[in-house]
Amino acid sequence: MGEIAVAAQYRDGASRLRNLRQAGCAKALTPRHDGDECLAVTINTAGGLTGGDRLDISGEADAGARLAMTTQAAERAYRAQPGEIAEVSVRLSADSGGRIGWLPQETILFDGCALRRRIEVDLAPDATLLAVEACVLGRAAMGEVVTEGIFEDQWRVRRDGALVYADALRLSGDIRRTVENPAALGGAGAFASICLIGPQSTVDPLLAPARKAIGETGGASQPRPGVLAARLVARNGFELRRALIPVLGVLRERPLPAVWTY
Question: Considering the entire predicted model, what is its pTM?
Answer without folding.
Answer: 0.95
